[in-house]
Amino acid sequence: MANGTYSDLILRVQALAGISDFTPTELTFLTSLVNRRANMAYEATDYWPRYLVAGEIRSLKTSTVNAGSFVVGTTYTILAAGNTNFVSIGAASNTVGVVFVATGAGTGSGTATLNSNIVPFTQAGKDTIDTFLRIHKTYQPFYLYSSVELEYYVNNDGAHLVGDTAPSTSTYVTYKMVWDGPYTTASTNIPGEWFDYIAHSVYADFLRQDGQNEKAIVEENVAKGILDDQLQKTDVSRATGMMAHRISTHNSRSFRR
Q1: The total number of structural domains that make up the chain
Q2: Residue 247's pLDDT band (boundaries 50, 70, 90)?
Q3: In what helix (H) or strand (E) does residue 16 lie, and over which residues does it extend?
């Protein structure tokens, strides 16, 4: 996807304003406005293609538990066997990596990881999640129609899976990644689909700050039209794809987000 530079964006605003340069104070002011408007564009939909990640494997939150502290009925994964007899408390073997449901507290020096039902917002080596959209149990969930989809609720810890009768250590998440701003004067990653909207809306803000309210309203409407066009393209892509929730019947399909 195409990107624009911050320098080119400011040049566009200068062209709209019909001036050759901004003062240092105005440039500082414009940086704040650019980031405000970029964030507004980012928040306008959860389905900007560049921020959408589909069916990525994510590990569930874990913690280490010592033998003697296992809770009956809770799912664990053997971390270190030590001299603990994990077979006697529900495991198929005493092998590291075996997942089991504890039938007793256990004894000895072994340890296991507690397999929670929480998908954290962050994971090393992966993008940070801003918004959870869908969660599945199966790899390539939008390729396999029979993939089981999980219900969840979200709090500060992440997405809590609900009603998973066969829990594992990972799941497949479709999400909106966090915005890669704020932008600086050196930025070269301003989304091309936002470029004209930001330029015209920042110009509207500049006019409003200068007391030219009528011109600002006109320019604001231009900016809104540009953003609406981009959002419509996103809606069309979303409608013909499978990322959004759907209700299917024998003769119709519709979103249920």
Answers
A1: 2
A2: very low
A3: helix 6-17
